Amino acid sequence: MNSETIKTLDNFSKDKYKYGFVTEIDSIRSKKGLNEETIKFISKQKNEPEWMLSWRLDCYKKWLKMPQPEWANLKIPDIDFQDIYYYSAPKSFKKKPKDLNEVDPKLIETYNKLGIPLEEQKVLAGVAVDAVFDSVSVATTYKGELEKLGIVFCSISEAVKTHPELVKKYLGSVIPPGDHSYSALNSAVFTDGSFVYIPENVKCPMELSTYFRINAEETGQFERTLIIADKGSYVSYLEGCTAPQRDSNQLHAANVELIALENAEIKYSTVQNWYPGDDEGKGGIYNFVTKRGLCKGKNSKISWTQVETGSAITWKYPSCILKGDNSIGEFYSVAITNNFQQADTGTKMTHIGKNTRSKIISKGISLGKSQNTYRGNVSFLRKADKARNYTQCDSLLVGNQCGAHTVPYIDSKNNSAIVEHEASTSKINEDQLYYCRQRGLSHEEAVSLIVNGFCKQVLQELPMEFAVEAQKLVAISLEGSVG
Amino acid sequence: MIFLNINNLNVSIDGKKIIDNFNLNINQGEIHAIMGPNGSGKSTLANVLAGNEDYEIISGKIIFKDHNLLDLNIEERAKLGIFLAFQYPVEIPGVNITPFLHASLNSKLKNQKKEEIDSLSFAKLLRKKAEELSISSDMLKRSINTGFSGGEKKRYEILQMSVLNPEFTIFDETDSGLDVDALKIVTEGINKFKNKNNSYLIITHYQKLLDYIKPDFVHVMRNGKIVKSGNISLASEIEKSGYKNF
Lengths: 483, 246
Prior knowledge:
heterodimer; A: alpha/beta; 10-stranded mixed β-sheet; 11 helices; B: alpha/beta; Rossmann fold; 6-stranded mixed β-sheet; globular
């Protein structure tokens, strides 16, 4: 790496996080700390039925006995779970507003500022949005139109009341609350998130999306999302996330469960841009997320696409359990870490059914002093005849002080399984930069172009409306540390 | 206006002197060729003109269009109208030529305080130029230089030159690695796009390239300096008896 490159790497304008503002709003909060009272408070705020509360309390008891997971390649400071608020909602939300006219204009303005207009006349064409602010869902657009097709798209709190039979049947069925301590924690204190049900043979005509915003200080966000695609149905779902810029760390521990029945397909895309902390590593979100999809029926398919650019620490492994014969699991990931960010992300593909196939494409880009790990686990159980996996994980290093790590596990109990694994690690190539600059592009434009090229295979999996946004986001994330 | 003047240039890499008291003057509209054996410093000269930062400029001056070139970085020189057709064009996986060259042309237009070109007009321009060079639209869809043959890469360089229309183009051993047919296609492309307002510096080891593009001046370079200058007949002399007489 020559001196010009090092200079431009150092010269980064460090403060590019444009979503770092705070909305001044009165809120109702639970008392600080986690105990049975807190859980009862949350459940009461949400007017939950008795069965939901007792489920939460059971999960809380499990959590008490569980140690924190320690296998990730991350340096996680001790988290004081008694120093966090577990519930925060704008005061005006004692009852969920029936329509947007009842929503506090400050909230609508917040989402406008984030580029997510909620007013029906301005909503993104072809995208229905559920907006979650701290612990509550603010609004869900296009609801009526979707109802005509029998599609349920609402907040999980609402679904607990309106579709208890589905929630009871599927909640915790893919991620058992006792899986690890964060799944237990989320199950005990989850606040809001989306619920989607697509009826048999219905192809959801628009993208469904949830936009998560953390606003209140010292508050954790515990998102819970449940998506069920009934036989022969299809849905594409996208989530986006941002948070204010603060010196203290905040916790986001989400559980997302997907269930695809026979011949159904779920496409789940994430653009994660939580506040990453400043250039000295101060502040930022701890993003501890459990995402798991169950391909329950024959010929079903679940595809995860993620663009991870934010958060101080990311700990996340969107996974697929391929139970139905001929089912397909896919994982496409771009993870960019800069400054002092740490990411340990990847996927788990569990092949149970015959002829199941999985594909993993992971692109990690490390800059600054960051650490970026791909962790994958591909396993074939005894009955997974002729199952196949293809894994490709590429790492790109920009600068001399960052790290890239690849930790793939493969475990096969079936002789007919076929696994292909390709991995590469490269440094950003001076010859490529020279070539681009000789054509008149600045150093920064050149890096952005090369990195976008490196990620293309993944970015093209995103829904059209978001692919361009994601490309811009990639460019912005690089500005934090590449001249 | 001085178009290009290189005055007493001395360049080294890792402490080893590569260019030694080098002098050259090129006027607008002229075609110059520099020939020389391997290791004579030809390619170093090309890269120093383009602004490659791997070399140490010990002393000397380069004036281009009244600018002190050594004060400018790679992209500033490119925007001023210097184009280097690379000897080994690098592969850039996942990056398509259309947005790449569009950004490139616009950065140049912006520098000249001219109006930038929109994507649609640019796509048309690129297609037209590609057709003139018999570059298929399929090839335009591929990532830059990725999986291209030697000849394809060189044609891609000519395509970029034709779109950017630089005042000064340096061909760094453009003939290397090309068979006779590929060489013919590439040089036909160059001849199609060269014009009287622009100047060219052709760097080559062999005389063959100069059969297709006729230079106004031929220089022989050895040990980092020009040891003889003349016209095209100098090239034939080299073809006959090699570099040993210089």
